[in-house]
């Protein structure tokens, strides 16, 4: 192959600001004309991938679905052999992770609707999770992806439980931030299921319990179905091994919860991820929406297997930019997105899992404390060690 064919195309530099133009805000450091050009480049990536969708994408998701079912069958079968209990739990855990991450999450985003396959259609798919798919699609696909990181609109900022941003008003309740985060991690599917009930707004008197009647019925139907499957039916099928199978199913759910929590939190809350106000995002353009998605997300580096097991949400930046594109395409466009960021002088937040996890844990602990340490006597030293300060977007490279 000649050197000419391996060269990357030369891209034009990012447009300079027009006279008298100013960046939208400190959090959105591009001018309107730059945003227009930036948005056009992102649209071009999306259109190119859509035009290229085909059999390779269909084959991929079908192979993943086949593998997920194979791991589930293997896990269920191995529970009949008590010495193989750890292998049974491992196989079932992998099955549940694949079902929730690479299959369920992505299918319910409509990434494979174009295939015309009922088993992979966003309107018909139901996942192995206590949260009903219809409720998840509203709170996640619509609320979260429309209002990503807009404090006061995106309820995924803290999930109504945690303080994860300096613009969230501190309350003594948040001193329990680390404990709440641990419980949310262990029972993550339940936290996701309860998300739409807006319990915190009921407590605050902003929402009536009666408004949750339909949601509650949907959740209870799904909870009964999941509990019957994992904690009654399959354990009962193993006869005298019922207790071992019950414990195995519970452990597999726990493993899936911990994995999903950590992947999702590392994509949304490490150092350098920006949040936004309602005012600065009013009447935003397409380019501004793309910029908000970029600056409000973070990636996790890892192997190809790691990306598959994360549902490619290790490419959270690309997912927020292009939520309806098959996630297997995110690694393909990641280098291009990063190159565009470099030309526009924008932060591309990425790092290994351990680094991002530590950053998230630090933030959870930091925002447990008030901005004014005098409100909680004796925490000054802890606050100093944690660096209780909201870094501006311009400094996120150092913070990360």
Number of strands: 2
Question: Helices and strands: which structural class?
Answer: mainly alpha
Bin the strand percentage: under 5%
Q: Biggest sheet: strands, sense, closure?
A: 2 strands, parallel
Low-confidence segments, ≥5 residues, pLDDT <50? 1-8, 389-400
Q: Distance between termini? A: 39 Å
Helix content class? 55-70%
Strand line-up across the major sheet: 1-2
Query: What order do the SSEs take from the amino end to the carboxyl end, as H and E?
Result: HHHHHHHHHHHEHHHEHHH
Outline type? globular
Helix run count: 17
Global mean pLDDT: 89
What is the CA-based Rg, rounded?
A: 22 Å
Characterise this structure.
With 400 residues, the protein is mostly helical. 56% of the residues lie in helices and 2% in strands. The chain contains 17 helices and two strands. Strands 1-2 form a two-stranded parallel ribbon. The chain is globular, with a radius of gyration of 22 Å. Mean pLDDT is 89; it is low at 1-8 and 389-400.
List its salient traits.
globular, two-stranded parallel ribbon, mainly alpha, disordered N terminus, 2 strands, single chain, 400 residues, disordered C terminus
How are the SSEs placed, and which strands pair?
Elements: H1 3-6, H2 32-52, H3 55-78, H4 85-107, H5 133-146, H6 177-186, H7 188-194, H8 199-203, H9 213-237, H10 242-268, H11 286-295, E1 299-301, H12 304-309, H13 316-321, H14 330-344, E2 350-352, H15 353-366, H16 380-386, H17 396-399
Parallel strand pairs: 1-2
Helix pairs in contact: 2-11, 2-14, 3-4, 4-10, 9-10, 10-15
